[in-house]
Amino acid sequence: RTGKSNQRFNLARLAILGINCIT
């Protein structure tokens, strides 16, 4: 199962989205 891996990917995507929102 890729539960932890998926969570990590989700975190990275969230960070990118946050940066996009800030800029």
Structure characteristics:
23 residues, 1 helix, mainly alpha, single chain, 87% helix
Q: What is the CA-CA span between the terminal residues?
A: 35 Å
Total number of helical segments?
A: 1
- Shape descriptor reads rod-shaped
Order of helices and strands: H
CA gyration radius, whole angstroms:
10 Å
Strand content: under 5%
Helical fraction: over 70%
Determine the structural class based on helices, strands and strand pairing: mainly alpha
Oligomeric status:
single chain
Mean pLDDT, all residues: 85
Number of strands: 0
Residue runs with pLDDT of under 50 for 5 or more positions: none
Largest sheet: none
Describe the overall structure.
- Helix content is about 85%, strand content about 0%.
- About 0% of the residues are buried.
- The protein has about 25 residues and is an all-alpha fold.
- The chain has one helix and no strands.
- The mean pLDDT is about 85.
Topology (SSEs and partners):
Layout: H1 3-22
Q: How would you sum up this structure in a few lines?
A:
This protein has one helix at 3-22.
